[in-house]
């Protein structure tokens, strides 16, 4: 499936908007032809100019560089990668991460877990405890289907309910205790409370205690590497102490999981055994602004590999133009225009975005394609249906984004 905006644009109209210089003498493909070629994986001669917009463009070389950078870090430090799926929602990407050494993936929802396991991905960790009859039933089904599936729990009520459901289904399941680490949305209290919960899991007949999780969500985007290091250390310290307490009590805490792209080179010092990084594969403008260990202004450890390609659809006033990338496509004023540092992004409406500049010589033409780096990967990716993998101007592959068939599948 394509983005809903792509379906609204006929090929003839899209071609008419292109500058003649951009079209040149090459044979233009109609919209149905492009779709037919994508369906049969025939990408020979397909370029960015053939695509409807807005469209997600993945720079193949930068994406691969990001994958390899994190894989090398994991190998050098010994901390495993349990890469987060919510960033990309694409089994093809998860499989590439695992091929480079990741020990699995983590998913934020039951549906994501189902979709990944249905795609043949193993080592799935669901990072939110199942609550309620439906979620627990689906979780038990996942454990039955894949013995490498792991869930998290932070409440004795859920421990009891899940144990009952597992017993009824004659299924066993791996469980990690979720401990508060600075983010108020979830996690049991560290110390004695978490110890008792871990003991309850360990004493159950159908759950295997695998470890502990603590996510310092506030640390991931803390500006400045030293400040981020302190924030992360402060937030996770009680969880780490709790893991030590559990081990001292004889509990099998093999896994300590958490962290983020922002703290990937900090979490090795916080005694994590695995890292739940996700954004590193693409990077967005907000992450790039938090500063890195070697550069306090720009987080340059990973490259911006994902952009939204747009078309200039109106240019009737000086120093501005409108593009077909608006609120519904998740445009934000913190987005950045690729290759045009003097151009800023502004809101234009549901289907419109504005590009503004002060220099009258910017010369952005009607019909021109402009690529824009998004501000928040999770939400932006969620409104598109596919990635167009680009090698320069050529499209070399198309990867579907899962969960676009309806609410149940998200």
Brief characterization of the structure:
This protein is of the alpha/beta class and 410 residues long. The chain has helices spanning 4-7, 11-17, 20-23, 31-39, 60-77, 91-99, 110-118, 133-145, 156-169, 192-203, 217-220, 225-248, 285-288, 377-381; strands at 55-59, 80-84, 104-107, 124-126, 150-153, 173-178, 207-214, 255-258, 274-275, 306-314, 320-323, 336-337, 344-347, 353-356, 369-373, 386-391, 394-400. The longest helix is centred in the middle third of the chain and has 24 residues, at 225-248.
Describe the overall structure.
With 410 residues, this protein is an alpha/beta fold. The chain has two domains: 4-60 and 304-409, Lyase, Ornithine Decarboxylase, Chain A, domain 1; 62-282, Alanine racemase (TIM Barrel, Alpha-Beta Barrel), CATH 3.20.20. The protein has helices spanning 4-7, 11-17, 20-23, 31-39, 60-77, 91-99, 110-118, 133-145, 156-169, 192-203, 217-220, 225-248, 285-288, 377-381, and strands spanning 55-59, 80-84, 104-107, 124-126, 150-153, 173-178, 207-214, 255-258, 274-275, 306-314, 320-323, 336-337, 344-347, 353-356, 369-373, 386-391, 394-400. Mean pLDDT is 91; it is low at 1-25.
């Amino acid at each position: 499936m394509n983005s809903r905006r792509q379906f609204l644009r006929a090929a003839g109209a899209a071609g008419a908007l292109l500058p003649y210089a951009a079209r040149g003498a090459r044979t233009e493909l109609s919209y149905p032809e492009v779709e037919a070629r994508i369906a049969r994986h025939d990408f020979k001669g397909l370029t960015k100019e053939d695509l409807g917009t807005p469209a997600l463009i993945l720079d193949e070389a930068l994406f691969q560089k990001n994958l390899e950078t994190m894989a090398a870090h994991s190998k050098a430090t010994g901390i495993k990668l349990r890469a987060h799926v919510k960033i990309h929602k694409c089994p093809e990407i998860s499989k590439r991460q695992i091929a480079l050494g990741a020990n699995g993936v983590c998913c934020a929802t039951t549906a994501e877990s189902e979709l990944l396991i249905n795609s043949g991905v193993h080592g799935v960790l669901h990072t939110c405890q199942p609550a309620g009859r439906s979620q627990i039933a689906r979780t038990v089904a996942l454990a039955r289907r894949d013995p490498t599936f792991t869930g998290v729990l932070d409440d004795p009520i859920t421990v009891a309910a899940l144990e009952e459901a597992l017993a009824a289904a004659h299924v066993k399941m791996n469980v990690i205790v979720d401990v508060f680490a600075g983010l108020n949305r979830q996690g049991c209290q560290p110390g004695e409370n978490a110890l008792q919960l871990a003991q309850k899991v360990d004493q159950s007949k159908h759950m295997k205690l695998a470890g502990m999780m603590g996510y310092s969500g506030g640390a991931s985007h803390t500006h400045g590497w030293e400040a981020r290091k302190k924030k992360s250390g402060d937030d996770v310290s009680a969880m780490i102490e709790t893991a030590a307490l559990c081990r001292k009590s004889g509990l099998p805490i093999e896994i300590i999981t958490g962290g983020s792209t922002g703290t990937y080179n900090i979490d090795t010092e916080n005694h994590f055994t695995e890292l739940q990084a996700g954004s590193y594969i693409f990077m967005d403008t907000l992450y790039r602004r938090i500063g890195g260990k070697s550069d306090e202004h720009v987080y340059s450890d990973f490259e911006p590999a994902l952009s939204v390609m747009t078309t200039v659809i109106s240019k009737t006033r000086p120093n501005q133009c409108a593009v077909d990338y608006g609120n519904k496509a998740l445009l934000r004023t913190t987005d950045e225009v690729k290759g045009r540092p003097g151009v800023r992004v502004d809101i234009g409406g549901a289907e419109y975005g504005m590009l503004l500049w002060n220099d009258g010589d910017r010369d952005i033409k009607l019909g021109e394609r402009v690529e824009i780096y998004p501000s928040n990967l999770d939400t932006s990716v969620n409104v598109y249906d596919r990635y167009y993998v680009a090698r320069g101007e050529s499209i070399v592959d198309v990867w579907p984004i899962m969960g676009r068939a309806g609410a149940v599948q998200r």
